[in-house]
Automatic annotation (TrEMBL):
It comes from Lentzea waywayandensis. This is Uncharacterized protein.
Length: 224
């Protein structure tokens, strides 16, 4: 399966709070199999357990967020039908996910109000253009260990939601991980039944802060 050319069906809402107006894009239907939870592990932040369909939607959401500096991309993952876990964790509460650019300046403390006013939204279909090649991003100014370097995905928690905030480049730098998950993962699992297949998303300079893994029970579909 190739990411480029895939279509993502969404709902678009515009919410006004005082003088501020926010554009929110979310999936037309909740993802069926994408439980997200905090591991409370000092070495890893959150786990996201997916099937093939959820992995594709998440990759498209990440790409759309990368290209949409004026939009809050909302994934209501607490509505998932499946609550599969890994690494021996059972009872951590599920989280929603919001992806956004830091230039938007949206304070997570306002999210609960915004979420309550989303309404039905209007249908909109997004077509994937894929991620840029990582090699094109490794320019001389790419110095992630330099103090003050801004092209880093950062995280916040508020209102049962994980917020991942970054620049175009910080989202793009994780593109290969999403591409590998959806383009290589299904084939690898078909060829090697029982193999664990996952990827790691770098947040706050921790390369594996967000661990995204295919569910061992529902590897291809939540219906299998």
């Amino acid at each position: 399966m190739k990411l480029e050319g895939e279509r993502w069906r969404t709902l678009v809402s515009t919410v006004r709070l005082g003088r501020d107006e926010y554009r929110v894009v979310r999936p037309a239907k909740p993802l069926k199999h994408a439980p997200l939870y905090d591991t409370y592990d000092g070495f890893r932040g959150v786990q996201l357990i997916v099937d093939k369909a959820a992995a594709l939607e998440l990759a498209m959401a990440w790409e759309f967020a990368m290209r949409s500096p004026r939009t809050l991309v909302y994934l209501p993952l607490r509505e998932t039908e499946y609550d599969c876990r890994s690494f021996g964790v059972d009872d951590e509460p599920l989280l929603d996910l919001v992806l956004m650019h830091h230039s938007l300046g949206f304070p997570p403390s306002r999210w609960k109000e915004v979420r309550a006013r989303l309404g039905r939204g209007r249908p909109h279909t997004v077509r994937s253009r894929g991620f840029p090649a990582v090699e094109s991003l490794l320019t001389p100014d790419h110095q992630p260990l330099r103090r003050g370097y801004r092209d880093v995905v950062r995280h916040h928690f508020a209102a049962d939601t994980l917020f991942l905030t970054g620049s175009w480049k910080s989202f793009a730098l994780n593109g290969d991980q999403w591409r590998e998950l959806i383009e290589d993962g299904p084939r690898r699992m078909h060829e090697n039944p029982g193999e664990h297949f996952c990827t790691d998303i770098a947040v706050e300079r921790i390369w594996d802060w967000m661990h995204v893994a295919y569910c061992h029970e529902h590897r291809v579909s939540a219906n299998t």
